[in-house]
Amino acid sequence: MHSKKIINAPDRLIPEIMEGLVLASHGSLVPVEGADALIRADMPDDKVALVIGGGSGHEPMYTAYVGDGLADASILGNIFAAPTPDHILAAIKAADRGKGVLLVYGNYAGDNMNFDIASEMAEAEGLRVRTVRVMDDVAVPRHEDRRGIGGAFYQVKVAGTACREASTLEEAAARVEHARENLRTLGVAVSAGSMPETGEPTFSLGPDELEIGMGAHGEPGVERRKMMSAQDLAREMTTLLVDDLPYRSGDRVAILFNNLGATTMMELLIVNRTVRSELEARGIECVRTDMGHYLTCQEMQGFSLTLIKLDDTLEADLAAPCRSIGYSQGA
């Protein structure tokens, strides 16, 4: 089915997204010269810089998470495509304040290649760069191959706090790596998103089918199944997540329900009932729940479920104040 989009010229999507973000920021964001990237206008002079980025079309990830307590700069790739190395390099150089630059982005082949090239170019110019990729998708068996999906929000949130507080690049990277080790996500879709340029769906599902474990663009998941109740779906997803880390009795966790674009709050609240019941039965305590749009795929109908095992440091990192167009909390 062809999807309708309220856009202008398809080849103007990225500059118009950037212009809309700058206008919405009321002066807190400015473009990076020579790149499809945005940077904080009020970035302090003495901090570890956090640079994030990825394909557009997943808003508010990564484009709208630039601000105090979150990222210092973000690079916008084309729709569902990695940013180019020259644009990444421009953002790294613009954000660097002499204490190094931490890169956080999803573990996809194009992003890995282009960010690695840009990192090498930056280091050749004397800048210090570290990378902590988002690799939270439990649908992929090999840890090193895991995609970065909805849990990216928690990793960026921790990274924003760590880069604001850490005295060194190495300290900030270690805190974000610790978050990644305790972070697991699983997604489910019942209908596809679309390519804004064409209106065509990114994949197809039958009217009575759902995909458990799909990636952010509809990449194959654990299996394609017949539609089921929210209760049965939530039980399966919780089991797959809990068993993967594994999460154990006595653990404290935060839960993220990420709306992939076209799922209602009603559905997420109903799923939450079963997820909480399943966790409580395992002796796992939920101390924080986040629910909403964090990493979307246009109008995809579905959601991802994220668990992060908490300790005092991670809980404080998630609770720390931050402010951006895409997410704000605290003073």
Folded structure, characterized:
It is built from 8 helices and 12 strands. With 331 residues, the protein is of the alpha/beta class. The chain has 2 domains: 11-181, Rossmann fold (3-Layer(aba) Sandwich), CATH 3.40.50.10440; 183-319, Dihydroxyacetone kinase, domain 2 (Hypothetical Protein Tm841, Chain: A,domain 3). The strands form 2 sheets. The protein has a 6-stranded mixed β-sheet with strand order 1-2-4-3-5-6, with helices on both faces. Strands 9-8-7-12-10-11 form a 6-stranded mixed β-sheet. The longest helix is centred in the C-terminal third of the chain and has 17 residues, at 265-281. The model has no long low-confidence stretch (mean pLDDT 96).
